[in-house]
Design brief:
The chain is of the alpha+beta class and about 210 residues long. The chain has 5 helices and 7 strands. The chain has one domain: Roll (Thiol Ester Dehydrase, Chain A), CATH 3.10.129.10. It catalyses: decanoyl-CoA + H2O = decanoate + CoA + H(+); tetradecanoyl-CoA + H2O = tetradecanoate + CoA + H(+); (9Z)-octadecenoyl-CoA + H2O = (9Z)-octadecenoate + CoA + H(+); octanoyl-CoA + H2O = octanoate + CoA + H(+).
């Protein structure tokens, strides 16, 4: 299946679709209300990274080293978390508070993310944690990469349930951004996972390749 059409590329996938359950829709509405006064904002999400963002990462990742994937290969790429049809994999939306330096991800794990029978795969949970804390660091400091991610799994997450991934920028030391998070049930009574992370802000004058 090709996702190269302009319509699919530009579609925002962080808005409700028929696969979202009532918990996800309710939380979405609650956070959208918080966005009305400007204290929070919803982050759009697409199947592919927008062209201007790709250029940012080229500049910061490569520095003076011009090696990169070919343009024809880039035209076939898509984000891992947006590579499933609606409802089958990662259904999520992120909200960011610049004042609080907080990122909240509302996540519903579909049936194609199964690990233990009836539960979300630990790798899928790690993917969403990394995506959430990484976006928190990016919003606070610009282009960053993961240096360390440490996750403590407390309880398995049932498939097709909704969880809140709450992340917080804890401190900044030079180019290091320290972000922590927890994964909780909608009623905040169940703690599924906790994580700490370190992200490095990239220097465009230096190459990682």
């Amino acid at each position: 299946r090709s996702f190269s059409s302009e319509e699919v590329i530009l579609k925002d996938y962080s808005v409700p679709n028929p696969s979202w359950n009532k918990d996800l829709r309710l939380l979405f509405d609650q956070f959208m209300e918080k966005c009305e006064d400007g204290s929070w904002k919803r982050l759009p999400s697409y199947k592919r990274i927008p062209a201007e963002k790709i250029q940012d990462f080229k500049t910061h990742l490569l520095g003076r080293n011009p090696k990169f994937v070919k343009e024809e290969q880039l035209s076939q790429t898509q984000l891992f978390t947006r590579s499933f049809d609606d409802g089958l994999g990662f259904e999520y939306v992120m909200f960011y508070s610049d004042v609080e330096k907080r990122m909240v991800c509302l996540f519903q794990g579909g049936p194609y993310l199964e690990g233990p029978p009836g539960f979300v795969h630990g790798g899928a949970i790690a993917t969403m944690i990394d995506s959430t804390v990484g976006m928190c660091a990016l919003m606070a400091g610009g282009v960053v990469v993961t240096a360390n991610l440490n996750i403590n799994y407390k309880r398995p997450i049932p498939l097709c349930s909704v969880v809140m991934i709450n992340s917080q920028l804890d401190k900044v030391e030079g180019r290091k951004f320290f972000v922590s998070c927890n994964v909780q049930s909608v009623d905040e009574k169940t703690l599924y996972s906790e994580a700490t992370s370190i992200f490095i802000k990239l220097n465009p004058a230096k190459s990682l390749t």
